[in-house]
């Protein structure tokens, strides 16, 4: 049988309601996806329809945005090299010891701090070199350290690093791997992209440029982890420490700091 003309045409009220409903649904979805959801994000800024569409789709607005890349500040200007790890000569160590007299008020006469400043005795030389150069360039902030570092020459920095590396490591013996270590120290938290502390920070393994933190003052460790977490400190290449610290809770930061600061200068437990 032939269907009656108009049964499925625009004159049919069911068809009209269906089309109108689909149009309204599409408009509503567009408003939610391109305006409401993006505006609910903390870093939202209105940059036009194309930017909103790209943001909703999860793709960049410009696939070759060189200007945006250049605008992002670099974390550090220091390129780590294995040559920085070489043992300093006797002359370098002696000259570094003289320069270090300016550092004793905060870092201790033998590189072991009693004022919540970092211990420098036995610190890897490339760590001292990198941090002093970051202070020089302003990549790591501290009014006192920036002022002191800006007066240092390249040779001064290398000699200071040689001297502190020459001193015996402060306060505590290296960590050994066993089940008693806190979970974040021993295995990290893979589901939150937190690497185990022992994989970089000495004792079991050491990554080039990662500081020795055994026996560091607890408050210093807490302060630095929270500074990485908040973004206040940003001189970690490729945001390595920021990526680890951001998911950490206050309790986890406290636990890690207590563990690494667990021994006093006399070798007893805190």
From the structure above, extract its key features:
270 residues, mainly alpha, Cytochrome Bc1 Complex, Chain D, domain 2, 12 helices, 46% helix
Write the layout of secondary structure elements.
Blueprint: H1 13-39, H2 49-57, H3 66-71, H4 90-99, H5 104-107, H6 125-137, H7 143-149, H8 154-166, H9 183-186, H10 218-230, H11 240-245, H12 250-260
InterPro entries: Cyt_c-like_dom, Cyt_c-like_dom_sf, Cytochrome_c_Oxidase_Subunit
Protein name: Cytochrome c4
Pfam families: Cytochrom_C
What would your notes on this structure say?
46% of the residues lie in helices and 0% in strands. With 270 residues, it is mainly α. Helix 6 (125-137) crosses helix 7. It is elongated and about 100 Å long. The termini are far apart.
CATH architecture of the domain at 82-166: Orthogonal Bundle
**How large a portion of the residues is in β-strands, by DSSP E?**
under 5%
Say what the CATH topology of the domain at 82-166 is.
Cytochrome Bc1 Complex, Chain D, domain 2
In total, how many beta strands? 0
Shape, principal axes of CA atoms: elongated
Spatial gap, N to C terminus = 95 Å
How many helical elements? Answer: 12
Quickly give the structural class: mainly alpha
Average of the residue pLDDT scores = 83
Question: Helix content range of the residues, please?
Answer: 40-55%
CATH superfamily of the domain at 82-166: Cytochrome c-like domain
């Amino acid at each position: 049988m032939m269907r009656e003309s108009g049964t499925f045409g625009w004159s049919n009220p069911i068809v009209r309601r269906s089309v109108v409903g689909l149009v309204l649904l599409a408009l509503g979805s567009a408003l939610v996806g391109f305006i409401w959801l993006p505006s609910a994000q903390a870093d939202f800024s209105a940059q036009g329809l194309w930017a909103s569409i790209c943001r909703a789709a999860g793709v960049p607005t410009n696939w070759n945005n060189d200007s945006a890349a250049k605008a992002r500040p670099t974390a550090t200007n220091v390129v780590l090299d294995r040559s920085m790890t070489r043992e300093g000569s006797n002359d370098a160590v002696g000259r570094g010891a003289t320069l270090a007299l300016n550092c004793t008020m905060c870092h201790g006469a033998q590189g072991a701090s009693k004022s919540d400043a970092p211990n420098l005795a036995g610190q890897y030389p490339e760590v001292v070199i990198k941090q002093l150069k970051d202070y020089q360039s302003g990549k790591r902030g501290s009014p006192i350290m920036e002022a002191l570092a800006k007066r240092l020459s390249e040779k001064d920095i290398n000699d200071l690093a040689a001297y502190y590396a020459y001193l015996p490591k402060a306060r505590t013996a290296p960590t050994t791997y066993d089940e008693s270590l806190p979970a974040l120290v021993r295995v990290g938290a893979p589901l939150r992209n937190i690497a185990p502390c022992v994989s970089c920070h000495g004792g079991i393994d050491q990554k080039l440029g990662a500081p020795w933190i055994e026996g560091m003052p607890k408050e210093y460790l807490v302060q630095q982890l929270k500074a990485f977490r908040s973004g206040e400190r940003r001189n970690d290449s490729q945001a390595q420490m920021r990526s680890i610290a951001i998911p950490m809770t206050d309790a986890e930061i406290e636990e890690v700091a207590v563990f690494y600061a667990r021994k006093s200068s006399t070798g007893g437990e805190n």
